[in-house]
Amino acid sequence: MSNDTVIGAITTYDGTEHPYLRGYPVRIVAILHNGNAEPDADGEIPGYEHLDNDSDIARYGGVTANDRVEVAPWIEKEGRFSWVTSDPRAVDLATFARLREGR
User: Fold this and answer.
1) What pLDDT does 40 receive?
2) How far apart, in Å, are the Cα atoms of 38 and each of 46, 62, 67, 83, 95?
3) How many CB atoms are located within 10 Å of the residue 22 CB?
4) What pLDDT does residue 3 have?
5) pLDDT for the residue numbered 100
6) What residues have CB less than 8 Å from 49, skipping those under 6 apart?
7) What is the spatial distance between Cα 26 and Cα 41, in angstroms, rounded to a whole number?
């Protein structure tokens, strides 16, 4: 995956938070920028943005360890990606392993 192509990229989920996704291919649908941040007193997440195109992701500085990623898992028996999505942490996707290591 090139550094400027995120949306639509296919990767593998390596985390434990969503055990049903572990080891499965997933397609990136959107970046939930600042999705790991704690809500403030009003319940709002400061700096949270739903980014569904690569130019917005670049404008926000790329994918960070504080982001979540909306992904669609591959359904083998149907030969397609699911229309149901999940939101794992960016660091739990193989594509973003460098974030886990702080690079």
Assistant:
1) 76
2) 8, 20, 12, 28, 24
3) 14
4) 53
5) 84
6) 32, 33, 34, 56, 60
7) 34
Q: What stretch of H or E contains 73?
A: strand 68-75
Mean pLDDT by runs of 10 across the 103 residues of the chain is: 79 94 95 86 81 96 95 96 95 93 63
Contact 93, 69 (CB under 8 A): yes
Quote the CA–CA distance of 87 and 103 in Å, as a whole number. 22
Q: Tell whether the torsion through CA atoms of 92, 25, 17 and 49 is positive or negative.
A: positive
- How many residues in the chain? 103
Reading the block at residue 2, the tokens are 């090139």
Spatial CA neighbour of 81 closest among 28, 19, 36: 28
Q: What residues pair up with 93 in beta bridges, in sequence order?
A: 13
pTM metric for this prediction? 0.87
Six token digits for residue 79: 């030969």
Nearest to 66 by CA among 40, 42, 99: 99
**Contact yes or no for 60/49 (Cβ under 8 A):** yes
